[in-house]
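BUG: 3D viewer hangs when loading the predicted structure for this chain

Environment: internal workstation, default settings.
Expected: structure renders.
Actual: progress bar stalls at 90%.

Input used:
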Amino acid sequence: MNGDEPQDRKTGLRIALAPGTIDGGGIGTAMLNLAQGLVEGGARVDLLLTAAPKDGRAVPKGVALHVLGPRTRRAFGAARRYLIDARPDMVITARNTMHLLIAATLKTAGRRGCLHVWTFHTHRSTELTRASAKDRLVDWLAIRAIGSADRLVAVSRGVAEDIERGAGLAPGSVETIPNAAWDPAFLARAAAPCPHPWLEDGGPPVILGIGRLVPQKDFPTLLRAVAGLDRPARLAILGEGRDRAELEALVAELGLGERVILPGQVSNIFAWLARADLFVLSSRWEGFGMVLVEALGCGTPAISTDCPSGPADILDNGKRGALVPVGDVAALTSAIADSLAAPRPDHRSAAEAYRFRDVARRFEALRDRTS
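Structure tokens produced before the viewer hung:
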């Protein structure tokens, strides 16, 4: 620890994180990162899930896992018993189902001293345009119950403002605390052996895309943008998903077979990020965009669509990397070309604001303000 870092006191808090699931996507990763940051500060941390993890994600050391059960009645009973027996000081929920479950159980368990923090990780109005009837009903119930929360926290200002508009809340009602997205230990993973020959062969620059192969990530726009470059460049898209066949067909249609690879899910994205010439986030929407932080922390230039809502925050409204309109192939092509031609910037210090422990302190401070 250097002299500029705040000294931690042992918080003595017992904090429950209740995301429901940590399988897939960024919410699970963000909650696990937050759990680690809280443990580092001396908190006793419980992780409340409706089912055991399926994708092999490791729960941080020192975090107790509690599986409530997938069915509402069973989960309600298990959550109520947990609240009565464990008596946590704070419960931080993610996703509407968990907001509602914990709100109801806190009421029946008589735990008035427990601070309930609702966290919002996605751009609600955008998600609702694609939501099922069931998800719309759950969202409606959550909006009606939002007044039961002690604190409302969003991962980006755009997500916060979207919730405020949708729930009819006064501006500033939803606080912004970003995802815990950076750990200096990632740099050790970045120094692992080179994962692909492209990254060390001295050939054309390598552009990296990372994410699930789903419409939200809009990899077709990225592929078309790379096809439009007037200089040689190669593209690797890391991730897996239902759109693989469609993307492979587009690669062939655009004649990019020798310049594009889709390696699937990889175990160490940092080894790729640290060696890539450019990271591009082409999403139609994001609640936050953690991989942008990871790219900056690895010293990799990054550009993004100016999608709702997190990338503009992370890239400081374009000061740390270009922001282009969503779905605009020509603008993305131009931004990629400009970035590849420019001297490599160094925005590694920007990732420090998203360190696990620093984000955890901000959640601990929510409790401090009530004492």
